[in-house]
Amino acid sequence: MLEEVIAAFERKDYNTAAKLIKHLLKESPENPWVQFYLGRLHEVSGERQRAEKIYRQLLRLTTHNKILSQARQGLQRLEEVKQEERQRAISQATEKPTSTEPGILVLEPISNELKVTAAQKFAQIMQVDSYTARLILPSRSWRIYRTGKVGELEFYGRLLQQAGIPCFWLRIPQIQQIQVFQVKYFSESQPKPTVVCHNTANQIGSLNFDWSEVTARVIGLLPIFEQVVDVNARRQLERKIQTQDYAQFCDLHLPARRSILRIYDQGYEFQQGLEITPQVSQNTMRINWNGLINWVEQQTPQVKAWSDFKSFAEKVLDQTDVLNQIPSHVDLFQREKSNWDSAFQLYSGIIFLKNGLKK
Hints:
Blueprint: H1 2-10, H2 14-27, H3 32-44, H4 48-61, H5 65-93, E1 102-107, H6 112-126, H7 130-136, E2 143-149, H8 150-162, E3 167-171, H9 172-176, E4 179-188, E5 194-198, E6 204-208, E7 217-231, E8 237-254, E9 259-264, H10 285-299, E10 305-306, H11 309-316, H12 320-323, H13 339-357
Parallel strand pairs: 4-9, 7-10
Antiparallel strand pairs: 1-2, 1-3, 4-5, 5-6, 7-8, 8-9
Helix pairs in contact: 1-2, 2-3, 3-4, 3-5, 4-5, 5-8, 6-7, 11-13
């Protein structure tokens, strides 16, 4: 009867093959050839998961070389079909003009208790091994996992979300289009706060707003690098780039205006405008800065403060393909370009889009 099953498959008479296999399953259900052709029947019927399960069982339980070879070929066919379907889906996802714009796929933190299960699903979707998947999935802060056409990233993102893996995707041009105003000082607090600031073209003006417009406060420390001369292990002089100091930044997000007000300690003119911290000769930069930030916090008590920039930056500093596309809008004097500056703009921009525009 097994020969009749083979003949039915050769002439693609799957109805006859199904009847014969049903009979054989009653007579000898453990026969590996019967199991193999049951898997083939599932495969041609489009029940690929059931077929894959049988093929993998045969690889584990049988030693018959011909059956092993046929099972491997079956798995290869299933994989090829899966890849073809994936490519078709990606092609459809990138048909819209905006879907071809550059984007980022961001993984959100996941608890260690859920990571083992999530890693298995992630590995299957992104076609990596489970160990690598566990290393990729973040526990503390966002991780930019992939860049590319945003339509393709959306395709993978939706698969991950359906598998219970938190993530989101954004278009890089959205981040590039956010206006950033460098705040020089607050000139008024009533009836509305007013800042004197300059735009990206270094044009100075004033902007008044309402505290209720602020949706986020983003806090970060940016290293300031200087070239120094040091003595190496051979007692030779050598030039190095080292961190000499840190600058403190605070971004206020105004999504309705698609704008960020950027305040930083070395650019804020504490002697000008509104006296927030009483100015005395003993005041240090830190005293003035802490007074300013405390005052801002008092004006925005319901606004979430985002302060996990360092953890985010440490994961993204080597992703120059992304950072090179992000204008930093950071006015610190640096002898060399610092990826930390663009990383802060990227961090703040992601928060701006995810929690402000939500588009």
